[in-house]
Amino acid sequence: MVRINRLTDGKNTVPIKTRKKVIPVYNPQLETFLVVADSGSFSKAAEALYISPNAVIKQMNSLETNLGIILFERTHRGLLLTEAGKSFYRDSKYIIQYAKDSIIRAQNAWQKEGAVIRIGTSPMTPAQILVELWPKIHALCPEMKFNLVPFENTPENAREILKNLGQNIDMVAGIFDDRLLEYRQCDGLELCRAPLCCAVSLSNPLAEKDMLEPDDLHGQNLMILERGQMEQMDILRDDLARRHPQIHIVNFDFYSTETFNQCENGSDILVAVANWQNVHPLLKIIPVNWNHAIPFGLLHSSEPSPAVRACIEAVVRVYNLEHQMT
After folding, report:
1. 29-39 vs 83-113: helix axis angle to the nearest 10?
2. Cβ neighbours of residue 58 under 8 Å, at least 6 residues apart?
3. Domain end among 61, 82, 111
4. What is the average per-residue pLDDT within 67-81?
5. Is the pLDDT of residue 17 over 60?
6. What sign does the CA torsion over 315, 316, 317, 320 have?
7. Domain boundary residue, one of 111, 135, 157
8. How far apart are CA 298 and CA 129, in angstroms?
9. Is 289 part of any domain?
10. Within this chain, do residues 191 and 76 fall inside the same structural domain, yes or no?
11. Is 10 exposed, middle or buried (0-12, 13-18, 19+ CB in 10 A)?
12. Is the pTM of this model over 0.90?
């Protein structure tokens, strides 16, 4: 179940379920060797490892060739370890356990040194908000570090990154709502409500205005995210259809650089937020005199790591302190 954690309503508790995955730092053939030795049979080892007997035999032949020794004596009663095999069996168990222990020691040392939070950044997911908060976050968590990870904002990347937050990228800043979080299988921390604005080409006469009225959009093509992706976009669409049918709604399926290029190259106007002011140098994002806004904040895994959880809590504390001061 996904949820939006809001700074202002006390719902900023994120459950943590730490997932530890041990990555082998040794030849995985060692584990196959131990299973074969314990079972005394290639076929039984294959069943235990869920691979084919032929694959097991190839691994053991390769291991023996690389080591230059014979590990097994093939008999009609099954496989028996040679003296060299018995020695290698004992050492293999030690090597595997030592390697696993070394990973745990390294992870513990890394946590003591301080965690690196990987922030995904693209034109539509600017990291500026975290950059601005960094001095105050660092004051609360001096061991924490940020690493910006640029990515191309394509539908495929968005799907994979948001679904797998916590693997290569820990956080992404952007617009979202419950519907998007449900679809993308992640969670979000709402920092503010971003008013929905309009992006217009600098060559459009409307670019001379600092504030638009809905009536200014009459007769214009207004690009709105297609129905079903974000609730606030659907509310805006329905409101305009009811109160301003003179506006021509144009559907598109994803915010990308190409979407902004289409807006600049043609005469269409794009629904946007002020945070995207620097996405395209030939577009101007202008506020509109209507009551429509969308959550803006940090998207993160529904099972954040302790480091990400600490970062979220630091952001919450910074925002709460600023709210108290104002």
Report:
1. 130
2. none
3. 111
4. 91
5. no
6. positive
7. 111
8. 9
9. yes
10. no
11. exposed
12. no
- As a whole number of angstroms, the distance between CA 221 and CA 70 comes to 76
**Tens-digit pLDDT profile for residues 134-158:** 888 888 888 788 888 888 888 888 8
Yes or no: say if 212 and 286 are a contact pair by the CB < 8 Å rule.
yes
297 pairs with which residues across the strands?
174, 190
Residues 65 and 188 in one domain: no
**DSSP character at residue 197:** E
Query: In terms of DSSP H, where are the helices of 20-82?
Result: 29-39, 42-49, 53-67
Residues 219 and 264 in one domain: yes
pLDDT digits (tens, 9 = 90+) for 227-259: 999 999 999 999 999 999 999 999 999 998 889
* Residue 285 lies in domain: 115-325
Kindly state whether residues 121 and 255 are assigned to the same domain.
Answer: yes
| Count of domains for the chain | 2
- Strands (E) in 67-158, as ranges, are 72-75, 78-81, 116-121, 145-150
Residue 86's pLDDT is what? 94
Q: Is there a single domain that holds both residue 90 and residue 125?
A: no
Q: What is the CA radius of gyration of the chain?
A: 28
Contact call for residues 191 and 7 (beta carbons, < 8 A): yes
12 within a domain of the structure (yes/no): no
Tokens encoding 306: 């302790």
